[in-house]
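Subject: Protein record for review, amino acid sequence with backbone structure tokens
How to read it: Take the token row as a discrete description of the fold.
Enclosed: The protein record, placed directly beneath this head.
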Amino acid sequence: MRLGAHMRISNGLPEAAESAAEIGCETIQVFAANPHAWRSPEIKPDDAEKFRHLTRRLDLRPAVVHTPYLLNLASPNPQVYSRSLVSLLDHMHRAHLIGAEYVVTHIGSHKGAGFGQGIARICAAVSKALEKSNDVILLLENSAGSGDSIGSTFEELCTLLDGVGWHARVAICLDTAHLWAAGYDMSSPAAVTKVIAEFDAVVGLDRLRYLHFNDTRVRLGSRVDRHANIGVGHIGEEGFRGILNHPLLAHLASVIEVPAKSIETDIKDLGTLKSLREAVH
């Protein structure tokens, strides 16, 4: 399994790729714009070309774009929903420009309007994004299950994929902290095997394309989204050992999204994960 980190772009996209390679990343995830704003300046063509070149030369694959935090594809608020769709379309375009293979997006919350209405809005937005883009694959990220959020269970993820006709360019990104919060125990190799078998039975492993590696200190099934550094939460090193060395996941890539982001913490967490991977392989 390839390992990497979500990298800051405050110094530019090319610099993010260079920094990723320096700390030992094998894959990279970035925000392609300000994650706290609806609109951002366009990516400079030169920066896009440099990022494409660097990710190829440095073998950072896949390159992944994460959409801004503001998006809510299930929102019953017309203005928020419209802005979310525009932002999703924009990020599919940005990903294409910089040569990213995937766009990962949070799914959203129906805000009390009802699960059915939320699902319908999400599927309509996803279908529009696919219609207006050509080669980038959209990954729906599982949620922790807080409030009225959608996508915390494998059954809900299956419903979403079914709602877009199992389109070839829609798949799933699983976040380990979100899985834990939603009640999926990932704390041992045996527990991991059970969860992976359940995902395969409900959704299908062919639809799992990327992983977010985050530990968490919250109670199992608490529906609270809190990330922790690798090995210091309830998933622990044994849980990540089980994921890293599961034969059905070996072809995937994962990134860490841990708190108190710094190069030092990324290096430490990547080192921990690599030691767990190398302990078997």
The mean pLDDT is 97.
